[in-house]
Amino acid sequence: MSERDRAMRGSLFVVSAPSGAGKHAILEQVLAHDPNLQYAVSATTRQPREGEVDGEDYHFLEPDEFRRRVEAGEFVEWAEVHGHCYGTLRSELEKRLDAGTDVVMQIDVQGMESLKEAGLEFVSVFVAAPSFEELERRLRKRGADGPEAIALRMRNARHEMERRDEYGHVIVNDVLEEAIADFEEIVRAERRRGGRRE
Ligand code: 5GP
Questions:
Q1: How far apart are the CA of 160 and the centre of ligand 1, in A?
Q2: Closest CA to 126 of 186, 168, 180, 179
Q3: Strand pairing partners for 54?
Q4: Closest ligand 1 atom to the C-alpha of 87?
Q5: Which residue's C-alpha comes closest to atom 5 of ligand 1?
Q6: CATH number, residue 8
């Protein structure tokens, strides 16, 4: 790739957070206000939650189909999280980045590590809840998971929080509006650094 092509390429933002930390709410607002930032929809084998739309929230795939695509090399990375498979399809990233559009994806810590190993360049952001108590309260309030699934998500949250230092930026999502502003500032700083449009 020439220097010029590299300079024109979009930036990739990778966001990780324990479930319930509120990354969804932050990204929803940031994406709504920024036409140059697009969301890479992950694929998963888990069942859709109420209100989730196939192709918007996730590409919901049967396990056989997920496996077929893994074998066909269609994923940039994939991992097993909370007992289900999740992965990023190349098709969600390449065309947009080549066209100079910035892309944001949300993946877990294992996914972030795979991207590093694959040699991809990206800006990494970890969204943390203010405390474990608050995280658990949010998961219960969301009502999407039963007690066992919540316990599993809380155990995973503890492991994930231990690895927050591996990220370039950490946002503590206490007041949502402030967390959104923090995220937007990270995007602006990256664009300034790359000399791209705001
Ligand atoms: P949820 O089931 O709550 O939507 O997501 C559970 C976890 O899967 C979250 O930690 C989320 O970051 C992770 N996840 C979602 N999409 C991907 C993906 O494409 N790759 C990886 N490695 N993890 C993902």
A1: 12
A2: 168
A3: 58
A4: 19
A5: 19
A6: 3.40.50.300
